[in-house]
Structure to design on (601 residues):
């Protein structure tokens, strides 16, 4: 479903080339839970952004359902992200002036998904929070709203970048369980530095210095 | 079945829930528009006052001889015999002066001396009705004034219009107000016999009235062309209008510079404020772009929000200006019969550059911001 062929991402740092990712090959199948594990600065987040089309590789190609993401226009890539992907970021980013329910609905703005969003809130134990604003919620609650936002519309892939980093261990595990349980038939790609959070992953890829080192099953 | 909520990212939701942020911006626009429309309306009221005060001269063309007082009959004959339009009446007049009050000081005003038989005609022609008092007795120091003039000078029947020791409103005898005419026009007249006997120099002039306003204009232009020169001075409303416009030409040039500077200052200030508010929303825009919103859709959204508060602020500003001008008119202008247009289109149009400039600056600010926008930097918290 997602294929990365010899993908590299190079930054220029004071005239010096820095590889965020170097010659990475990856193939994610439908419904697969892939964990990307590595220390800070190993390039795992860059890999996630490359796979999701948020960044374009400087070398190699990323394919989504056999379409090369690099050949798509900005708006076509945005459309893919909006309709086919869900995102959970490291920090529980919510829009401050929208309620929990409204924050979930922004994931698919043109569709009538209110009932589904309310069901997701209930599933994630947040039905009493639906009309609350982000400043009225705890960090764990906010990240669960982000999970609900990522799951709205049953995306084909959910990308999660260190989704538990800003949470305590219990809340973090809870968020991971929810993501895994409610992703339906969608694939889940999770980047983390904590192997405990990848419990239940079909595959774990280790990264260091921008390169993938081993795959565990 | 549950009802669908409105789009959470609609401009209305943002503006309503961020009222504390958008209200000050709107407030600045309201104040700027009010200030500009108010100042321009008040300045426009000066030439407007001139036109209102002297609008009675729309009804006739007046001719006074120059150099030789005995030319008057010849000049009159020339008009009567050669007028290009049918004349309704030609009357002999003399004049004495008074001062009327305006928001920029005193202005000269003529108290016409009329023969008794012409007074009724003159009143009718100026759409005046003598509601209080009577017409001046020939040879007596008496005058009729119109209601706006009475209000301006705070005079009532029995009060003194002109007197010997008043250099601005001089007459050798105390001239009493014996009648007040109900009319929109400003005018004053007394007995021509009194003027001939008491005012120096004793020179008759004349006024010619055409039958219709269009004919009057033709007569005015013809008289100016044919008689104005070394033998006569011709007074027409068109000339007065022209002189008033020329007189305020420099004032309007200064006003344009002041308003232009004000617009630039306000626009720069608003540009900075909008920039600050947009910077506070960088996280929101980064998140939405990462989720799959295009730059164009975000740009359109911000511009719609900007349009609503800029246009809303402008309309409210015009409303506040209208309210304030009415208050000024009611409390300060009307009691003194000062002219002020509360719906002065030209003054309101002066405020149009405010929303246009602010919108343009917003457009550029937003466009520049989105052009170099990196959503990954935002969601990774490198740029927030």
């Amino acid at each position: 479903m997602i294929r990365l062929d010899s993908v590299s991402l190079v930054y220029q740092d004071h005239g010096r080339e820095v590889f965020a990712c170097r010659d990475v090959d990856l193939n994610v199948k439908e419904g697969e839970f892939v964990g990307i594990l590595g220390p800070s600065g190993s390039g795992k987040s860059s890999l996630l952004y490359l796979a999701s089309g948020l960044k374009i590789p400087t070398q190699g190609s990323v394919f989504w359902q056999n379409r090369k993401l690099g050949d798509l226009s900005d708006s076509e890539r945005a459309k893919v992200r909006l309709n086919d992907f869900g995102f959970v970021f490291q920090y529980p980013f919510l829009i401050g002036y929208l309620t929990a329910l409204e924050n979930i609905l922004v994931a698919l703005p043109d569709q009538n998904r209110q009932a589904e969003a309310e069901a997701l809130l209930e599933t994630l134990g947040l039905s009493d929070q639906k009309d609350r604003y982000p400043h009225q919620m705890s960090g764990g609650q906010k990240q669960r709203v982000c999970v609900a936002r990522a799951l709205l519309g049953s995306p084909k892939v959910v990308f999660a970048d260190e989704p538990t980093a800003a949470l305590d261990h219990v809340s973090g595990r809870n968020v991971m369980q929810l993501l895994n349980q409610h992703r339906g038939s969608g694939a889940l790609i999770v980047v983390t530095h904590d192997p405990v959070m990848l419990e239940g992953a079909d595959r774990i890829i280790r990264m260091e210095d921008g390169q993938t080192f081993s795959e565990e099953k | 079945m549950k009802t669908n909520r409105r789009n959470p990212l609609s401009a209305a939701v943002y503006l309503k829930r961020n009222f504390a942020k958008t209200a000050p911006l709107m407030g600045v626009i309201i104040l700027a528009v009010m200030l500009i429309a108010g100042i321009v309306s008040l300045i426009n009221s000066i030439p407007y006052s001139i036109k209102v005060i002297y609008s009675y001269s729309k009804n006739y063309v007046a001719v006074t001889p120059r150099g030789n007082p005995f030319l008057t009959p010849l000049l009159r004959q020339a008009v009567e015999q050669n007028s290009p339009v049918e004349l309704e009446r030609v009357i002999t007049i003399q004049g004495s002066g008074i001062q009327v009050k305006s928001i920029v000081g005193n202005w000269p005003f003529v108290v016409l001396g009329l023969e008794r038989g012409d007074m009724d005609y003159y009143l009718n022609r100026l759409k005046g009705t003598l509601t209080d008092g009577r017409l001046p007795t020939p040879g007596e120091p008496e005058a009729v004034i119109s209601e706006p003039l009475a209000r301006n000078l705070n005079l009532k029947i029995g009060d003194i219009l002109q007197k010997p020791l008043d250099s601005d409103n001089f007459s050798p005898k105390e001239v009493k107000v014996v009648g007040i005419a109900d009319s929109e026009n400003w005018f004053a007249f007394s007995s021509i016999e009194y003027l001939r006997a008491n005012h120096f120099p004793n020179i008759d002039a004349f006024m010619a009235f055409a039958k219709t306003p269009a004919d009057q204009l033709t007569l005015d232009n013809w008289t100016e062309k044919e008689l104005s020169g070394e033998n006569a001075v011709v007074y027409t409303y068109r000339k007065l209008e022209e002189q008033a416009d020329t007189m305020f030409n420099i004032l309007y040039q200064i006003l344009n510079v002041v308003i232009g500077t004000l617009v630039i200052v306000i626009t720069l200030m608003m540009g900075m404020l909008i920039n600050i508010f947009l910077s506070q929303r960088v996280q929101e825009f980064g998140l939405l772009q990462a989720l799959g919103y295009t730059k164009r859709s975000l740009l359109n959204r911000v511009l719609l929000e900007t349009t609503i508060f800029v246009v809303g602020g402008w309309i409210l500003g015009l409303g506040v200006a209208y309210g304030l001008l009415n208050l000024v008119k009611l409390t300060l202008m009307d009691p003194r019969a000062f002219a002020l247009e509360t719906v002065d289109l030209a003054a309101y149009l002066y405020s149009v550059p405010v929303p246009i400039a602010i919108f343009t600056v917003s457009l550029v600010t937003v466009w520049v911001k989105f052009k170099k926008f990196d959503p990954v930097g935002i969601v990774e918290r490198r740029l927030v």
Notes: The mean pLDDT of chain A is 90. The beta strands of chain A are 2-13, 16-28, 33-37, 59-64, 67-68, 85-88, 157-161, 187-192, 203-208, 211-216. Chain A touches chain B at residues 45, 49, 54-55, 74-75, 78-83, 85, 87, 89-91, 93, 95-99, 101-103, 105-107, 109, 112, 114-115, 118, 149, 161 (CB under 8 Å).
